[in-house]
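In the design runs reported in the main text, the only information available to the sequence generator was the tokenized backbone. The following block is the verbatim input for one such run; it is reproduced so that readers can re-run the procedure and compare outputs position by position.
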């Protein structure tokens, strides 16, 4: 399996001028731990993680250097640290040297990158343009969908099944399924993500069952909680 098979394509992003406080609110509201920074052409320019927002002057959590470390630090290091702690825009706190992959990168290679760089997600780019993101959760879903099975003679049809199902869902106004939430393994369709109603869940199952070659459908979706009336 490759990045294209599991990646989330509806990626939450911010631009370089987004206020830091707004980035923090976005991470909190969406329940995510990081967000890509893109320019007006969706060119990937950086990443912001929870770690980038932890050491801030507003919360009095900025690091305090010992006197000897202060003496050994260069002016460039100190200036960069100041910007990170006091900057008010995404471009001030983002990590610019971003590890990324392509849609054809094997999942084994992605897992190695996440572990080696100690990161929780990796953006997927095409010619520098952000097209998706693969997180640890995406890899866990892929593992769960495989069910410990090895490649079977019909496994080469999984991509065809998935493409046909995604094409069908794209034609339906009620469907909001992200490609990263549809995984096909040995003819079994695994549906992930959040849904708005039980009717949508049933419709997703029907759409999957009607695709030629599908042996079974496994529903892992969760119902999105509704907000109480104001």
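Verbatim output:
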């Amino acid at each position: 399996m490759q990045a294209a098979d599991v990646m989330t394509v509806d990626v939450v992003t911010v631009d370089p001028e987004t206020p830091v406080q707004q980035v923090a609110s976005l991470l909190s509201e969406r329940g995510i731990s990081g967000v890509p920074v893109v320019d007006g052409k969706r060119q990937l320019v950086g990443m912001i993680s929870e770690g980038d927002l932890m050491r801030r002057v507003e919360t009095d959590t900025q690091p305090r250097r010992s006197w000897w470390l202060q003496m050994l630090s260069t002016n460039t290091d100190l200036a960069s640290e100041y910007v990170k702690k006091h900057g008010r825009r995404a471009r001030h706190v983002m990590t610019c040297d971003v590890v990324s992959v392509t849609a054809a990168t094997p999942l084994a290679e992605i897992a190695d990158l996440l572990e080696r760089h100690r990161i929780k997600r990796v953006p997927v780019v095409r010619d520098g343009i952000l097209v998706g993101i693969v997180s640890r959760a995406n890899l866990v879903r892929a593992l769960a969908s495989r069910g410990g099975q090895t490649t079977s003679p019909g496994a080469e049809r999984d991509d065809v099944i998935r493409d046909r199902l995604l094409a069908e869902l794209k034609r339906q106004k009620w469907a909001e399924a992200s490609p990263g939430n549809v995984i096909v393994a040995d003819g079994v369709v695994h549906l992930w993500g959040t849904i708005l109603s039980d009717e949508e869940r049933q419709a997703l199952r029907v759409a999957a069952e009607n695709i030629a070659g599908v042996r079974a459908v496994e529903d892992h979706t969760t119902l999105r909680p509704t907000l109480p009336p104001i």
